[in-house]
Amino acid sequence: MIVGSLQESPDPTPAGAFPDPSNLTLDNYVAIDERIDLLQGLLNSGIFTGGVLLGTVVFGVLAGYALAVLHWRGRGVTFALALLVQVVPFQLLMIPLYVLIARDYGLADSYLGMILPFAINSTAVIVFRQYFLQLPRELFDSAAVDGAGELRTLWSVALPLVRPVVLTVVLLTFIGPWNEFLWPFLITKEQSMQPLAVSLANYISNVAASAANPFGAVLAGAVVLAVPAVVLFIVFQRYFRTTNIGSGVKG
């Protein structure tokens, strides 16, 4: 993909997978940036994805902790509903959600309208619940004896022990909204607010054929879209390991 984005003339042969110094150029990046503004698209993607990540982690941790540690009536039913949500495809809910967000809430052409349907991720809730269930109960009992409330226990005792899974949820959640183009396209037609994935989809369907090298320009946009996800994985990959939660218990 990187080699193709740098080619002045497309080379569809197997040899085209390897860089040819005589056929390398940055004009493809310039061409697509002139059409869709890559930096603005990246900023919009960052706002959309950052809002989704914040909601996913905050609500996922709170709900997962409540389902795993706290005892309250209806906990089993709530967990069953969280599992049931997994079998409902998002595409089935898209039209009702659009009517709710755009017409009832009046959040069309807004970042909040793009973020709100993804703010709570049932998969993240289930993952956090399962990891919180693995923590020794003695840790929470000791915190209660010391006078810590539930929020203090969650922040000071539980979260440090499941930090790798928090980072894993962040990375896995990041990929979805970062590559999402259908829902933001429905919510806003303002090009200045559209994430990069939406701008690329519009470019491919509308104006790519008018570029000097449509193949290279599309690949250049794809490279820009992929780089943040690759960098995020490289930075946090060392944290994706099992935490030795048993070491927190004496004896």
TrEMBL record:
Pfam family of the protein (one): BPD_transp_1
Database matches in Gene3D superfamilies: MetI-like (1.10.3720.10)
Transmembrane segments: 47-70, 77-99, 111-132, 153-175, 215-236
PROSITE patterns found in the cross-reference section: ABC_TM1
SUPFAM superfamilies per record: MetI-like
Gene Ontology CC terms, in alphabetical order: plasma membrane
GO biological process: transmembrane transport
Subcellular location: Cell membrane
Keywords in alphabetical order: Cell membrane, Membrane, Transmembrane, Transmembrane helix, Transport
Membrane topology term: Multi-pass membrane protein
Residue ranges of domain ABC transmembrane type-1 in the record: 42-236
Similarity-based family: Belongs to the binding-protein-dependent transport system permease family.
Protein name as catalogued: Carbohydrate ABC transporter permease
